[in-house]
# Entry
Amino acid sequence: QVQLVESGGGLVQTGDSLRLSCAVSGRTVSSTGMGWFRQAPGKEREFVAAITWSGSSTYYADSVKGRFTISRDNAKNTVYLRMNSLKPEDTAVYYCAASTRFITPAKAMGARSAYDYWGQGTQVTVSS
# Structure
């Protein structure tokens, strides 16, 4: 059974940084495509960032490109989302997701259908 547990969310001000963590159990991240999505109140869940199962490629939504960085630590079996220069429009619940399929290219991991497991989410609130 694959389980994903997010942490690191909180209330910050515009321009601040946060690092979200996604601890994975039941599967090694070194062979798993991972992604981050977010959902703001009243909106659809949207793609944020992904890293392929090989770790060789990443893909970002245009809205976060240059500000957010996805990475993984194989030894800790954890995936991270570093978020810099946060804006009020980044306010949302952030979800970690895992794909058991060997999906390439990285752009294909922008779809929710690419993922098999989801975490419960962590709230990020950016005040203006």
